[in-house]
Specification:
Helices cover 59% and strands 8% of the residues. It is mostly helical and 128 residues long. The chain has one domain. A hairpin with a 7-residue loop joins strand 2 and strand 3. The chain is globular, with a radius of gyration of 13 Å.
């Protein structure tokens, strides 16, 4: 599914306050922070963005779909109302093998990596 659509769905689900989605997003956000994909610094300023990015990964996992990165242009992210840092976070997630790409960058169809899958697979008590 298109990355922008996943980001929009993530924002919507976070706004709705689903405990299942929020808990799983927190798990993924913790993984992203511990692997230094998303920084701890400035989390009070950018924490909402960080959570939306983590939520997009949870959305892809829940739907059993890939994260389709169709554009790497900063202007496109700005146009859709998302930070230009999103692609940097995705690149770092690919580098750390949290997302799997056919290239060394977040480009094309990204699959949710084994580490994230294992964490989300082993928390069925959070299922809604």
């Amino acid at each position: 599914m298109n990355l922008f659509r996943l980001l929009q769905k993530s924002k919507h689900n976070l706004d709705q306050g689903s405990a299942y989605f929020s808990d799983n997003t927190d798990i993924v956000l913790g993984i992203l922070r511990s692997c230094e994909v998303i920084p701890y610094k400035r989390s009070t300023i950018n924490g909402g963005l960080h959570k939306i990015v983590a939520g997009a990964i949870v959305e892809a996992y829940d739907l059993g779909t890939t994260i389709d990165v169709t554009s790497r242009r900063a202007g496109t992210y700005f146009h859709y109302g998302f930070s230009t840092k999103v692609i940097d976070y995705m690149d770092k997630a690919v580098e750390k093998k949290l997302l799997i790409s056919q290239t060394k960058k977040a480009k094309g169809k990204l699959e949710v990596g084994k580490i994230i899958q294992d964490y989300l697979d082993h928390y069925p008590l959070l299922a809604g």
